[in-house]
Give the backbone structure.
Amino acid sequence: MSPASIAFNRFGYGARAGETPPADPRRYLLAQLDAFDPAPPQIAGRITTRGKTGELVQLIRGLRREQREMAGMAESMAEPGGMAMSGEDRRAAALAGLPPELREQLMMARQALAGDIAARVQLAVASPTPMAERLVHFWANHFSVSAGKLGTQFEVGPHEFAAIRPRVLGRFADLLKAAVLHPAMLIYLDQFQSIGPNAPITQRRGRRGGRDAAQRPRGLNENLAREVLELHTLGVDGGYDQADVTELARALTGWTVPGLGRVGRLAEDQPGGAAFVAMAHEPGARQVLGRRYPEGGARQALAILDDLAAHPATARHIATKFARHFAADTPPPALVDRLEADFRKTGGDLASLTRTLIASPEAWESNPRKFRAPFEWLVGVLRLTGGAEAMPPQRVMGALTQLGQVPWRAPSPAGYDDIAASWAGPDALVRRVEFAERIARSVPQESVITRAEAAFPGALSTATRDQLTRAESGSQALALLLVSPEMLRR
């Protein structure tokens, strides 16, 4: 690969149709950091759905209390995998069995989600700063939330648009706090209903439920605390233990989403759309990784997160993931060391981390080192062909479902895998070939070789060029280009 092709394809989402290769690839990338728009019109104009989230969660809670089996129907309807497998008839039957107010909320949530996914794709396809868009999506996957969890559908888009996107070139500590304390994450990992064992509200319930109930720790949920330590900061080998998980979980109690029943009336609004209920917070000081944190209500968890963001293990964990995403499945040790040193020196300055990546020779290795994941490949295809106009929101959702990587649908809090073994299977390649044939029939097909040379400047192989030359039609040539090694690997 030439430096210009690397700048287009390894760091970004590929060249747009008619885009001129950069004369200075590194300067081209650095300029994107200054030109990045964190709030473009597609996002700034998004209608807020924040109030709908509390209503939806409250409706689901009520329904589960009254009728457990109905909740199962709702979950099958909201689960993306279930939607794909069950089809329209089953989904319609599930909707018909729900109370009207919940059915309406779920339909609205589904429409909001489809619109947010389409906006995400359109932004990446049209962006003049594709590397910055890649940064947004890297960090969104690092702080993965899933719309498969009932109640999150209104919030997964804003989680990326409002919590992550404006902070991808800021301080990691700020990104961490905004991402893990956003309503989407609080719902996804059940933090919104975590209550301290000795919190005032627990004590009150205990008095109502009898002497034994008052002695029983209940309501504490450790999901978010565990994932913060294992996935978002220190890493699985970061040196924490179960006591640290429990202490962080206690510090996080009280953080919830607004609009939840009687408890919600006691909530104090927090930055980012979350809320804090002091009566649900575990009182007292906490000790995490040997450091003591005095009682401080909502600020206690913030203080712990600040220290986790600055921990040396976090620097190593982030540097490794960053290098793996941009450079190679097996990250070059020298690159990891360089990124880790920058993270520690700057206190987690993500703009500096990105500049260090761009300046590192390991990131400019001429051999393709990464297999493009489905979302990345789709965006690259649409940028190259100009085919985004032929992709209304439902077709975007359908294409991503077919390719196997719908945004905000990762199967676990770890996010989507970032290695070739997860995406390069025979079935997955067949699906890309089928999509390439469809898109090639719906866009202009002339001058395919000229477009290929522009998209991969100085990097189009003789084998690919020969295949394009021998194609029987423009449509066939374009389809071949879209599944060529140059398009599949970067």
The chain has a mean pLDDT of 88. The first strand starts at residue 255 and ends at 256.
